[in-house]
Design brief:
CATH architecture of one domain: 3-Layer(aba) Sandwich
CATH superfamily of one domain: Gcn5-related N-acetyltransferase (GNAT)
Number of strands: 10
Largest sheet: 5 strands, mixed, barrel
Number of helices: 46
Oligomer: single chain
CATH class of one domain: Alpha Beta
Length: 809
C-alpha cells in the first residue's frame, strides 16, 4: 500500500510540474531530485512542457537543466531545442558540448543537418571567432543549396574541410564543392588564382571556368594574370577585365597578348577595352573594327561581331566598318543574328544591299530557328531571303529541283511561292513536279504545252504537272480549266479509259462523291439523264464533294434549303432560285423597282494592270467565300460559323473577288439592303409635327428616312503585300461606287476601308438586317452572327459615307 501511495505522489508531482506521467516507471528514482532542481533553478514550464524529448533528456542528464536555464535567458525557443535533440547522433549527448557552443548553433536556424558537423569539426580552440562565424555562414549556405544537402563532411579530409572557413568559399560554385575542394587542396597555384578572384570580388566564375583554367599551365597563367592586373590597377578596370576574360574562355594566350599591348596605354584607353566583350576581343585580335562604337551594341550585334572577329570573317568586318549606320539600324530580331543564318550563309559574301535588306528579314519565332535549312548546303543570300519568307515545305522542294543556275532555281520557287502553289500538292508528288519544273519554269509550260486549255490558272497548271504522266493521254482533249481539274482529281481512276469523252460517259463510276451525293439527295437516273450537261459541269468543279461536305454539317431545316440550292444548280436553274420573283423586296423590306432588280443582277468587273476585280453571284463563288483566298469562319469545310454561309445565296448578297494571274487573292461581300442615319426604332418615339418655320426641318426629316443602301463589307486577302491590298481595296470601292450609281442608292463602306477611301467620312449609320431563307447571317462589321431574332431590325455602327452625301443630307 505504501508503494502505491508513493507512486501516486510521484505521478502527482510530475503532473504538477507539467511532465508526462508515463516517465514515472522508467525514471522513478531520479524524478524527485530532478523536479526539485528544476524548481530551485527556476526553469519555466515553457522550456519542456508538451515536449517529451526534452523531458526525457532532463531526466537522463540533469545537468541539462543549467543549459536550458541559460538558453531561456537568451530567448531560445524550446521547439528548437527539441528539434536538435531529435537529430542528435546516437553516440552524443547535449552535455558533450558547452552550452555556449550549442547556443551559437541554436541561434542560427539555417544550419539544418550541418548543425553537429559544425560542433564536431569547427567548434574547437584552434579556430578563432572569425573562422567559426565563417564556418557557420558557409554551412548555412550549403544547407540552403539543394545540391549540398547530401554532402558528408566526414568524407572530406582536414585540408579540404578547412575551405569551409576560408573566405574564398564565398565565390566557389556550391554544386561542385567536392570537386573544388579536391582541386584547391591539391594545386596551390589554382588556390592562388581563386584567392586573386576573391580579392577583386569576382563571384561569377563557374565550375567549367575553373576547369578551363586547370587544364592550362596554372602557375604561368597566375603570373600573367597578376601582371595584367597590376597594369590595370591604375584605371580601376580589374573587375571588368576579369569578367570579360572569363566570358572569353580564361585563355593564358590572351593574358600574354594583353601584357604586351596594354603597356603605354592611358587609363581611359584601357577602360574602353573592357566596356564590352566585343571591344575586348577586337583589341585582342588587333583592333579590326575602328569605325563602330562597340560599347553600347545589343547582345545580338555584339555576339555576331565576336564571331566574325574570332572566325576571321574579314570581308564582313570590312562591310561593317564601312557601313556602321546600317549595322546599328538592324533589328535585334534580324535573321542575321540567328546562329542558323551564319551556318547557312558565308557572311563574308554579304554586301551593303544585303545588309539593308536584313532590316526587314526578322525571325519568325522566339528561338529564331529555320528548321528546314540544310547544314550541308552553302546558300547564297538571295536563296535564304527567298526561302525564309516561304513555308518550310518550299525549302524541301527547292532542293529537289535539278537546275544548275541558282538564279533559274529561284525563278521557279518564287513563281510557286508567290501564289502558294505548293499548298494543294501532296509531298508524295513533290519530286514529280520538281522534275517537270527542272525542265522549264511554270509560265513556259502554260504558254506551250497547256496553251490550248482555256482559263487555266497557275494552281491548276501546277496540279497538271504533278500528275503529268497520268493525265498525258487526255491532255490534247482538255479544253478548259474545269476539265483539267476534274481529270487531275481523278488521275488514278481515269487511266483505264482511252479518251476524255469515255471519261465523261462513265462519270458515275469515276466520282465516288457524286454517287454518295445522289444517294443523300435521292437523285435518280431519270434526273441525271435530263440534266447530264449541267451535272458534268458541276462535277468538273468538284461540286459533288463540296456539296456533300457542307450538307453533312447542316441541321435538318438548313439541309432542305441547301438541297434546293444544289438541285437548282444541277438543273441549270440556280439564278431562277437566287433571284426568285419578289424575294429581293421581301428580304430587304424596300420597294425595289424592276430597274433596281435589273441593275442589281447585272454583274460588273474592272481590270487595272495585273488586277482583275469581278462581281460574282454564282453557286461556286458563293461556296468559296470562306475558303478563297483564305480560310475564314464561314469555310464550308470546317468554319465555326459556316451555317451562315447559306445566307449568301440570298437575292441581296453578291461577292467581289480580286484575281491576279487567274488566282483569287482577295474577296469582299456586297450586300443590298436599306439603312438610315438615325435609329428608326428610336426615331419613331420622337414622331411629331414638322416645324414649318425652321429651315432645317426638311433636312431633319430626310435624315430619318430609310434609304436603299449598298454595303461593302471588309475584305479578306492572301498572298499579297500591303500595297497590293490597298490597290485592291480601292478597286473594290470603285466598283461598288459604279454599282451604287446604277442602283441610285447610298453606298456605305466598312470602316476597314478608311485608309483606302477618298472623300469618305466616318459616321454612325444604321443598317437593316435583312430577312434570310437561311435563318442566320454573318456580318463582320456588326459583331458576327445575326440570328432570325435580329432580322428586320436595325443595327448601328461606325461606317464610311461619301462626303457629298453628308453635305446634302
Amino acid at each position: 500500500m505504501k508503494k502505491i501511495i508513493e507512486r501516486l505522489n510521484l505521478i502527482h508531482s510530475l503532473e504538477e510540474s507539467q511532465f508526462g506521467v508515463d516517465l514515472a516507471a522508467k525514471y522513478q528514482s531520479v524524478i524527485p531530485e530532478v523536479l526539485a532542481d528544476i524548481k530551485e533553478k527556476g526553469l519555466p514550464y515553457t522550456m519542456y512542457r508538451n515536449l517529451p524529448e526534452i523531458q526525457e533528456a532532463i531526466l537522463k542528464e540533469p545537468k541539462l537543466i543549467d543549459y536550458l536555464v541559460f538558453w531561456e535567458k537568451h530567448e531560445i525557443y524550446a521547439s528548437k531545442i527539441s528539434s536538435m535533440l531529435k537529430n542528435l547522433p546516437q553516440d552524443k549527448k547535449m552535455t558533450d558540448f558547452t552550452k555556449e557552443s550549442l547556443l551559437t548553433v541554436l541561434q542560427n536556424n539555417k544550419l539544418g543537418d550541418f548543425t553537429y558537423d559544425f560542433l564536431r569539426y569547427f567548434d574547437s580552440a584552434e579556430l578563432n571567432e572569425e573562422q567559426k562565424l565563417l564556418a557557420i555562414q558557409n554551412l548555412c549556405a550549403m544547407n540552403c543549396h539543394y545540391a549540398c544537402r547530401e554532402l558528408k563532411l566526414s568524407e572530406f579530409n582536414d585540408k579540404e574541410r578547412a575551405f569551409i572557413y576560408d573566405p574564398v568559399f564565398a565565390i566557389l560554385p556550391l554544386e561542385y564543392l567536392t570537386e573544388m575542394f579536391h582541386t584547391l587542396s591539391g594545386n596551390e597555384w589554382m588556390y592562388k588564382v581563386v584567392r586573386l578572384l576573391y580579392r577583386y570580388g569576382i563571384s561569377e566564375f563557374y565550375y567549367p571556368d575553373y576547369e578551363k583554367i586547370e587544364k592550362q599551365n596554372v602557375k604561368a597563367l597566375y603570373e600573367k594574370l597578376q601582371s595584367v592586373m597590376s597594369l590595370l590597377e591604375t584605371c580601376d578596370s580589374v573587375r571588368d577585365f576579369l569578367a570579360t576574360w572569363r566570358d572569353n574562355g580564361c585563355s593564358e594566350y590572351e593574358l600574354e597578348i594583353l601584357t604586351k599591348r596594354l603597356r603605354g596605354l592611358s587609363a581611359v584607353e584601357m577602360q574602353k577595352i573592357f566596356h564590352s566583350r566585343a571591344a575586348y576581343i577586337n583589341f585582342i585580335f588587333g583592333s579590326r573594327i575602328c569605325n563602330l562604337e562597340l560599347d553600347y551594341l545589343s547582345t545580338e550585334k555584339e555576339e555576331l561581331l565576336i564571331y566574325a572577329i574570332t572566325a576571321r570573317k574579314n570581308s564582313f568586318l570590312r562591310l561593317i566598318e564601312e557601313n556602321p549606320e546600317e549595322y546599328i539600324a538592324l533589328s535585334p530580331r534580324s535573321i542575321l543574328f540567328s546562329s542558323w543564318f551564319r551556318n547557312a550563309v558565308n557572311i563574308n559574301s554579304l554586301n551593303k544591299k544585303n545588309l539593308i535588306c536584313l532590316k526587314n528579314l526578322l525571325v519568325r519565332n522566339r528561338n529564331g530557328d529555320a528548321v528546314d535549312f540544310r547544314t550541308d548546303y552553302a546558300y547564297t543570300f538571295e536563296e535564304v531571303k527567298t526561302l525564309y519568307l516561304l513555308p518550310d515545305d518550299y525549302t524541301m522542294f527547292y532542293h529537289m529541283l535539278d537546275i544548275p543556275r541558282i538564279d533559274d532555281k529561284l525563278i521557279v520557287i518564287r513563281q510557286l511561292g508567290k501564289r502558294g502553289l505548293l499548298d494543294g500538292i501532296s509531298e508524295d508528288d513533290y519530286r514529280k513536279l520538281a522534275q517537270k519544273l527542272s525542265q522549264k519554269h511554270l509560265y513556259r509550260w502554260m504558254n506551250e504545252e497547256f496553251s490550248h486549255i482555256k482559263g487555266l490558272g497557275q494552281e491548276s497548271a501546277v496540279k497538271l504537272l504533278a500528275s503529268y504522266e497520268e493525265i498525258y493521254p487526255f491532255l490534247s482533249e482538255i479544253v478548259n480549266e474545269t476539265e483539267a481539274i476534274y481529270v487531275v482529281r481523278n488521275a488514278g481512276v481515269v487511266q483505264k479509259y482511252i479518251t476524255l469523252q469515255e471519261v465523261k460517259y462513265n462519270l458515275l463510276q469515276i466520282d465516288s462523291a457524286w454517287r454518295a451525293l445522289c444517294k443523300t439527295l435521292e437523285i435518280d437516273q431519270k434526273f441525271i439523264e435530263a440534266h447530264s450537261e449541267t451535272i458534268f459541269a458541276f462535277l468538273t468543279k468538284n461540286g459533288a464533294e463540296i456539296a456533300l461536305t457542307y450538307y453533312r454539317q447542316l441541321d435538318d431545316k438548313a439541309k432542305e434549303s441547301y438541297r434546293r440550292i444544289v438541285m437548282a444548280e444541277l438543273m441549270g436553274k440556280f439564278y431562277e432560285l437566287k433571284y426568285h420573283l419578289g424575294d429581293l423586296k421581301r428580304e430587304i423590306g424596300y420597294s425595289v423597282t424592276e430597274k433596281h432588280c435589273y441593275s442589281w443582277t447585272k454583274l460588273l468587273d474592272e481590270r487595272k494592270q495585273d488586277i482583275f476585280v469581278k462581281e460574282c453571284d454564282g453557286f461556286f463563288e458563293t461556296m468559296m467565300v470562306g475558303v478563297k483566298p483564305q480560310r475564314t469562319c464561314m469555310s464550308y469545310v470546317d468554319g465555326a460559323y459556316n451555317q451562315c454561309l447559306l445566307s449568301n445565296f440570298d437575292s441581296n448578297k453578291h461577292i467581289l473577288y480580286a484575281y491576279i494571274d487567274g488566282e483569287p487573292v482577295a474577296r469582299a461581300l456586297l450586300r443590298l439592303t436599306k439603312g438610315s442615319f438615325q435609329d428608326i426604332k428610336n426615331a419613331s418615339k420622337e414622331f411629331m409635327y414638322v416645324d414649318l418655320e425652321s429651315n432645317d426641318s426638311e433636312r431633319h426629316v430626310k435624315r430619318y428616312r430609310e434609304r436603299l443602301t449598298l454595303f461593302l463589307e471588309l475584305s479578306y486577302s492572301a498572298n499579297i503585300n500591303l500595297d497590293k491590298r490597298g490597290e485592291i481595296d480601292a478597286m473594290f470601292i470603285e466598283l461598288a461606287e459604279k454599282k451604287a450609281k446604277e442602283l441610285d442608292c447610298l453606298l456605305v463602306l466598312s470602316a476597314s476601308y478608311e485608309t483606302s477611301s477618298k472623300n469618305y467620312t466616318p459616321v454612325r449609320y444604321y443598317l437593316y438586317i435583312s430577312r434570310s431563307k437561311a435563318g442566320e447571317q454573318y456580318f463582320d462589321s456588326l459583331g458576327g452572327s445575326c440570328s432570325v431574332s435580329s432580322e428586320q431590325s436595325y443595327r448601328g455602327n461606325r461606317f464610311l459615307v461619301a462626303d457629298s452625301v453628308l453635305e446634302n443630307s
